[in-house]
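Question thread 4412

I'm putting together a teaching handout and wanted feedback from people who do this every day. The idea is simple: show students a protein as raw sequence, then show them the C-alpha cells that encode its fold, then repeat with a second protein so they can compare. Below is the first pair exactly as I plan to print it.
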Amino acid sequence: MLARYRIVRGKRSPSDPLPDGIRQDTRKHTQHVLRPTAPLVLALLEDSSAAAFAAFEHGYRALLQQRFVTERRRFDELAELARSNDVYLGCNCPTQRQPDVRRCHTLLALAFLRDHYPDVVVRFPQTKA
C-alpha cells in the first residue's frame, strides 16, 4: 500500500501520529525518485495562485515521466515494496506557506504511481475542498 504522511519538525501532536510502516522522505532536498526539484517548489511557494499550481503540476508530472523513463528500476522497486508493505511518502505539507495539502507533490506522486502500477493499493488522504 502507498499513502502519504506529514513530516513534522519537533514534537508531533498526538492527533497526528507517525504511521506504522515504511516512511520515505520525498522532499526536494532528498535523493528520492519522487522528489520535486527545488525550482519547482520555490516557484510554487512564491506564488500561491491556481495558475502557479497548474504550472507546478505540469512540471512535476513531466519530471516524474522523465524519471520513469530514465530511472524505471527505482519506480519498480518502490512499487514492489508497496505490494507487501505499507509505504508512506513524506512531505511537510501542509505548512504556513503552502497550507493546502491538495497542492502537495505527494498527492501527484500517488496518482502517478496508481496510474503506472494499477495492482498497487494507493490511499489518498481525505482532504477538505
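The second pair follows. I'd like the answer to focus on this one:
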Amino acid sequence: MASVDAAELVRRLDAVLVKAGPAAPFVLFLASFLEYVFPPVPGDAVAVLGGWYATHGGLSWAVLFSALSIGALAGTAFDWRLGRWLGARLEDRAEAGRLDRARLERFERAYRRWGGLLLVANRFLPGIRAFFFLAAGAAGIPLWKVLLYGGISAVLWNVLLLGAGALLAKNEMELFALFARYDTVAWIVLLAGSAIAILVWLRRRAKRQRA
C-alpha cells in the first residue's frame, strides 16, 4: 500500500472519493474487487480512505462494510474460478505424464486441510491474497467454503479499518501512514516465515534422502 509519494497518492485517491459522491460505494467495491484480480491496484489505500470517511460522517459504516465486503467476495469468486481452470490444466498435465501426480495430490490434500487458515488470514496479508484463492480453486475446495472463509476475513479487516479510523488516527494521512507501516511489518513477517518454512522443508528433504 505504500507509495514513492504517499502524500500525493492520498490526495489523488481522496479526490477520487470526493468527486465520486453518490458513486463512492461503487468505487470502493471496484477497488476491493480489482485488488484480488490485479494486486498492483492500490485497493487497500482506497479502503483506508473510505474507512476514514466512514468514521467521520462522510460515508455510512454499513455502506463501507457492504461495498468492501461484496467487492472482496466478488474478487474471491473470480480467483477461485480461475484456480479451477488452472487445476484442470494441471490434471491434464498429470494425465499426460508431464507433471508428478503424487506431488499434485499431496498439494491438494494439504491445501484442503490447511488452506482454510490462509483464506481467513488473506485480508491481512498484502499483495499475495489472490494466490490463496487460486490455490483453493486448484485444490478443489468448494466455492461456498472459500466465500465463507473470505467473508470472515473481509469482515475482520473492515472492523480493524473502522476501529483504526475511529480511535487511532487524527486525519486520513495519519491513517494511511498507519496502514502503510502495517504493510511493511506484514511483509517482513511473511518473508521471514517463508524463509523458515523453506529451511525446514530443505532439512526434512535432506533427512529423507539420507534415510
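Top answer:
Good format. For the second protein you could add a caption like this: The CA atoms of residues 73 and 168 lie 28 Å apart. Helices lie at 6-20, 24-37, 43-55, 61-95, 101-121, 129-139, 143-167, 172-210.
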